[in-house]
Amino acid sequence: MAIKLSKKSSERKNYLIDMDGVLVHGRTPIPGADKFIERLQSANVNYLVLTNNPLYTPGDLAYRLNLAGLNIPSERIFTSAMATARFLMAQKPGATAFVIGESGLTSVLHASGFVITDVDPDYVVLGETHSYNLEHITRAIRLVAAGAHFFATNPDPSGPGEGGLVPACGAMAALIEKATGVSPFFVGKPNPLMMRMALNYLDVHSEDTIMVGDRMDTDIVGGVQAGLETILVLSGVTRREDVRRFPYQPSLIVESVAEIEP
């Protein structure tokens, strides 16, 4: 049965929704996720899928979600790569960057007017890639040590891969930080900056928006810090017994998005 928040919260018409563990597990849809998206669309609710995954473009992710039975258009997807590009463009338009990442990151940086180069760049931008290259990591270390500003799309240390865990952006960032002594600036969740950018992208206010996620340490804390109502779903990483360990709490806990009535 679908669940609503309190009267005050149920008046909110906008949703930021994490992807992995909330809508899908890899390529497999969470049971009831398709009906949840249909309810949002039928009610003309403004929503955005908010993901730390910087590997793919919104079009790629929309195609992947469509294959899983979730009819979500690309303009309803906002990635940590998009947030990173927007932040860097606001900092220094037309800058140069050495980039480690896939098309989800490089394409949005190019579209934002950045020049990608390994010669004296303004920034080193670390995303995720299907195959980390030691030569590229070494180049990034030397550029950061020489003074390039160090940014990373997201702090996730690992992610799911074929056969088990694979290193993600946070793990590679830790390697570069250890070698240089320079900490990266992470743009993605739990940085509330990404939440704010998503709100601006939708042109909505935090007081009228709910964050739905499966991780207390990224989705929920980011939502709390950005002033959003939060719904924790138990279909992903966080278990119900884990919640009490955190000093901040979600507005509501449900088994999955199948229980949420917008």
How would you describe what is shown here?
The chain has two domains: 7-52 and 189-259, 3-Layer(aba) Sandwich (Rossmann fold), CATH 3.40.50; 81-186, HAD superfamily/HAD-like (Rossmann fold), CATH 3.40.50. With 262 residues, the chain is α/β, with parallel strands linked by helices. Helix 6 (134-145) packs across helix 7 (169-180). Mean pLDDT is 92; it is low at 6-10. It is globular and about 50 Å long. The protein has helices at 7-10, 33-42, 58-67, 80-91, 103-111, 134-145, 169-180, 192-202, 216-225, and strands at residues 14-17, 24-25, 28-29, 46-51, 77-79, 96-100, 115-116, 123-126, 149-152, 158-161, 164-167, 185-186, 209-213, 229-233, 252-254. A hairpin with a 2-residue loop joins strand 10 and strand 11 (164-167). 46% of the residues are buried. The protein is built from nine helices and 15 strands. The strands form four sheets. A six-stranded parallel beta sheet has the order 5-4-1-13-14-15. Strands 7-6-8-9-12 form a five-stranded parallel beta sheet, with helices on both faces. A two-stranded antiparallel sheet has the order 2-3.
